[in-house]
Design brief:
single chain, 445 residues, alpha+beta, Rieske Iron-sulfur Protein, Naphthalene 1,2-dioxygenase Alpha Subunit, Chain A, domain 1, 2 domains, four-stranded antiparallel β-sheet, 15 helices, globular, binds FE2/S2 (inorganic) cluster, binds fe (ii) ion
Length: 445
């Protein structure tokens, strides 16, 4: 990429189309990491991943290797995974317990769980030098800002910018909806996550999440096969219905394109988006009825109806999180390179809910979001093919024009038009946010 072109980023994004280099250029990728991922609030993990002091999980924020660790005061800290001595990574494992302090494996400098220097061996060797207890450069560096919302831990590597709540705005509903569905108002993570490396740019994954047109095309064959089996099983059961898990797959065939158009996308500043509508998660089976009973006991009938009435299919927290709150799942997107992206796929238990409700979430996790399912494989194949096509000389632009000009905009919020749920409004909104970030950083709204 020539410096000339990268200087004029405005030429890369138009309201209804985007230049291919946005997805394929390594220099643009570096700038994205600096201006977007290493600046905005990025999801690190859930606090239940690190229940005890000294428990840690490593996580990638942009290009930075970080450690999420439970401190001795119970607070979750996020530190750069780097020793201030000669730069060694402090934690080589993905997760574990470091005990009461960190100890670098190279020359044994030790650090408290908040990153502060604890001890330097052979202290006398540093007498008269700039290195020692009182020099803050001898401690592990912390993420500039860390916030925890209902157990979900986010960090920003920039000193300034909106608070987490300001940043999330209405997209905060993702976490409220997930937690409120728990009789105890909290969720806990189920160890461990699936990790998938996609050979494609990170934005392709995010754009696909709220592309309501693609499921009826990409996942149709899987949906049809599941629907055939579902019908066979339904015939053989007394109730005449197959277990809900079959519906999770068959819906990809039975929810046709025109039905997806009935859903709606609501697009917010910073690139976040909500896709409303859900594929019928309020059946009257005994498991659901048992759950309803526990919930009504915990919240009362009125509040219970409000909670289960929240009508969300997906919440996208740009630039790194896709949440399906009614099924207690989330996918965190960690760009590794311009054509390599890691996704972590997590699911959660609703504290206080019957085991069967957890099993339902687990079924969706395995059947729809896991690397083992054809649903995920079909998406992954398209992401790879998109990236290959975009890297070719076959064209310069990516079209985002579906229902362009029919969006309804009010106070910075853009809704897809009536019966236009398959609109490409979410992709346009993401690219609008992207262009602002790339130009101005986080103070974009
Ligand atoms: S690099 Fe960590 S103690 Fe030397
Ligand atoms: Fe898909």
């Amino acid at each position: 990429m020539h410096t000339e072109r990268i200087k004029d980023l405005s030429k890369l994004v138009e309201p209804d189309r985007v230049r291919k280099e946005v997805y394929t250029d390594a220099e643009i990728f570096e700038r994205e990491m600096a201006r977007i991922h290493e600046t905005v609030w990025i999801y690190c993990g859930h606090e239940t991943q690190v229940p005890k002091a000294g428990d840690y999980y490593t996580v990638q924020i942009g290009r930075q290797p970080m450690i999420m660790v439970r401190g001795s005061n119970g607070k979750v800290n996020v530190l750069y995974n780097r020793c201030p001595h000669r730069g060694n990574m402090i934690c080589g494992d993905r997760k574990g317990s470091t005990g009461e302090f960190f100890r670098c494996s190279y020359h044994a400098w030790t650090f408290h769980l908040d990153g502060k220097l604890k001890n330097i061996p052979m202290k006398s060797a540093y007498e008269g030098t700039r290195y020692g207890r009182n020099n803050p450069d001898c401690s592990m560096k912390k993420a500039a800002r860390v916030e925890n919302y209902r157990g979900f831990v986010f960090a920003s590597l920039a000193e300034d910018g909106p608070t987490l709540k300001e940043f999330l705005g209405k997209a905060i509903v993702a976490f409220d909806d997930m937690c409120d569905r728990a009789p105890e108002g909290e969720v806990e993570v189920v160890p461990n996550c699936f990790r998938v490396i996609q050979h494609s740019n990170w934005k392709l994954f995010l754009e696909n999440q709220l592309d309501a047109l693609h499921p009826s095309v990409v996942h149709q064959s899987t949906g049809r096969a599941a629907h055939e089996v579902e019908k066979m099983i339904a015939k053989k059961t007394k109730s005449g219905e197959a277990p809900l898990a079959y519906h999770m797959l068959s819906a990809f065939a039975t929810v046709t394109i025109d039905k997806w158009d009935n859903f709606q996308t609501i697009n917010y500043p910073y690139g976040h988006c909500i896709l409303t509508g859900y594929m019928g998660l309020r059946p009257q089976d005994p498991d659901t009825l048992a759950y309803d009973k526990v919930m009504i006991k915990a919240y009362g009938k009125k509040r219970f109806e409000e909670i289960v009435g929240v009508n969300i299919h997906h919440v996208l927290v740009y630039p790194g999180l896709s949440v399906q709150s009614p099924l207690q799942q989330l996918r965190a997107v960690r760009p590794l390179g311009v054509d390599r992206t890691l996704t972590e796929i997590w699911h959660f238990r609703l504290k206080g809910a019957p085991e069967a409700i957890y099993r339902r979430s687990l079924a969706y996790y395995n059947l729809v979001n896991s690397p083992a399912t054809l649903i995920n494989a079909d998406d992954l194949e398209n992401f790879w093919k998109c990236h290959q096509g975009l890297a070719s000389d076959g064209g310069d632009w990516v079209s985002l024009a579906r229902h362009h000009g029919r969006d309804i905009e009010k106070d910075g919020v853009v809704e897809s038009g009536p019966r236009m749920g398959t609109s490409e409004a979410p992709m346009r909104n993401q690219m609008k946010a992207w262009a602002k970030y790339m130009k101005e950083g986080t103070r974009t709204t």
